[in-house]
Fold this sequence. Notes:
Layout: E1 2-9, H1 14-27, E2 31-37, E3 46-54, E4 69-72, E5 92-96, E6 112-115, H2 117-124, H3 131-142, H4 147-157, H5 160-175
Parallel strand pairs: 1-4, 4-5, 5-6
Antiparallel strand pairs: 1-3, 2-3
Amino acid sequence: MIEIRIHGRGGQGVVTAAELIAIAAFYEGKESQAFPNFGVERRGAPIESYARISDQPIKLRSQIYEPDFIIVQDDTLFSIIDLFKGIKKDTKIIINTNKKLSLKLDAKKENILFIPATKIALEVLGKPIINTVMLGAFAKFSELIKLTSIEKALKSKFSGEILEKNIKAAKQGSIFGHPKVES
């Protein structure tokens, strides 16, 4: 089973990102689940969401404590919460940032991907809603789900111009889905 933890702020599409990962995995014939972890938070407050993907039925219903993947949608969270709690040596990390960050982690350099998702979202969507950009990068970086499955998942939730823009945003994100690409 692959476990994914997504960190961001309310209003950035953190919960929707986990749902779209689960839907995309389902379209590929895999078992999946997605769920948020938040209470009375409001727009801008730190939140987490989770997704699991497996070839077997998923019976586990707990939060994700030792993720295989971490997606950080907002780099301002570094000073607020421990984004890397439970990290394993082979955990892969995707971080939305325009900055060159120096992380002191026990993770391989090739397992960390930096992507300027906010910049891409502003160019494509006209808003700093970066979840679909991050999903495109996740699809390419993880190789767990195909970009076409992300597109299919987007079609299950959106239509019209917003759908087309989100598909474009995911495709732009997938360009950065390899750690050797410099942002």
